[in-house]
Every structure is written in structure tokens, then in C-alpha cells.
Design brief:
globular, 37% helix, 8 strands
């Protein structure tokens, strides 16, 4: 609960922190150095390669990678952190006993074993559409900053970026081809000066 000393310090600072949430695994001191990596469920090859490389390089520097365990960029980011021996935190939009998507069961178990799975929802809660915006504010709330890899202008990653800006967190975006639908969101964030243009993990660390 929000009154316990183990409640994450960064999350407590947002304007609508969850009063209580459920976890599998344990937070560590190092999790205060966390970066969220988010993006589309259907990334291009470019998005896949960059998400993996950036996530691995950050994890190797001792930075915890946070994402939402969805298909696509989220799963790539979690797996990259695990592959490099780093920590990762998954914030899900269902109860801890409802694994979504079902094919991520092994990933879910690995994260619970070596990192943390977080949910604001009671056991048995199905992954309904209205749960994900609430989930997204926690992804950004646990992080020092959010990296958006590939997204259309209406994607959930854009919501997470908006929450991050409201929470006074840094936003980073990977530029993409002009005219490519999955680069529209990231390019707009950069164009509006809402996100820093990045091409590597080093840019984020700097």
C-alpha cells in the first residue's frame, strides 16, 4: 500500500498513485534507476532491432527496464533485459493470475523470478481495454524516463508518453521514416519538442 516503506518512491510522486497494488517478485534499491521502453504491438524489423539493442545496452549499465508485457516492443524490451542479465519490471493490465497475452507465460514467470510483475488490479481481473490507460500511468510513474520506439499517433505508447510529460519525467523517441505509419507518433513527439531524439542507449544516459 501507499503507506508502506517499500512503496516505490518515484511512483508515490505522481498525482494519482495507486493506493495499493499487487506484485510478484521484489523491488530493489537499483530499481530507482529505471527507464520504460514502449511501442507498437506490431513493430517493423527496424523497431525490433533498435528496441533490443537499446534495452540491452541500458540493462548492461544497471538500469532497470520497465514495460507492459504486451506483444511487440514491450516483450522485446523485457527479453533483451533478461538476456543481458539485467532487471526488468512488467506492469500488466489484468490480475496477476491472468497472463495476457497467453504466449508470454514463460516471460511472465522469468520476470517474476528475477524482477517484478506489478498490477493495480485484483486477482481474476480480465485484460479489458479500459485497464490499459491506468496501467500506462504506472509504467511511466515507476520510471525516470520513457523511450518510445515505434508507434502510430493513436497508440498506447503515446498515452504513456503523455503521462510521462504530466509526471515531469523525460521522454525519448527513436526517429523513423517520414510517411511510415509506425514512425508517425515518434516523429511528432520529436517535432513538438515533447521528446528528445535518441539513436542509442548512450543518448539516454547522457
Amino acid at each position: 500500500t501507499i503507506n508502506e516503506k517499500d512503496y516505490p518512491h518515484l511512483l508515490k510522486k505522481i498525482y494519482d498513485p495507486p493506493i495499493l497494488f499487487y506484485i510478484l517478485g521484489e523491488f530493489t534499491e537499483s530499481d530507482q534507476y529505471s527507464i520504460a521502453v514502449v511501442g507498437t504491438r506490431q513493430p517493423t524489423n527496424y523497431g525490433k532491432v533498435q528496441a533490443e539493442k537499446i534495452s540491452m545496452d541500458l540493462a548492461k549499465q544497471g538500469i532497470t527496464i520497465i514495460s507492459g508485457m504486451a506483444r511487440g516492443i514491450d516483450s522485446i524490451a523485457h527479453n533483451a533485459a533478461l538476456k543481458s542479465g539485467g532487471r526488468t519490471i512488467a506492469v500488466i493490465g489484468s490480475g496477476l493470475d491472468v497472463i495476457y497475452p497467453a504466449e508470454n507465460r514463460k516471460l511472465f514467470e522469468k520476470i517474476a523470478e528475477t524482477g517484478v510483475v506489478v498490477s493495480e488490479f485484483t486477482l481474476g481481473t480480465k485484460p479489458d481495454a479500459q485497464n490499459f490507460p491506468r496501467r500506462n500511468r504506472i509504467i511511466s510513474g515507476l520510471s525516470l524516463g520513457v523511450i518510445v520506439i515505434e508507434t502510430a499517433t493513436s497508440g498506447g505508447a503515446m498515452q504513456t508518453a503523455a503521462f510521462a510529460l504530466d509526471q515531469n519525467r523525460e521522454v525519448f523517441a527513436l526517429p523513423g521514416n517520414v510517411g511510415a505509419r509506425l514512425s508517425e507518433g515518434t516523429n511528432i513527439l520529436i517535432q513538438k519538442s515533447e521528446a528528445e531524439l535518441i539513436t542509442s542507449a548512450e543518448d539516454v544516459i547522457n
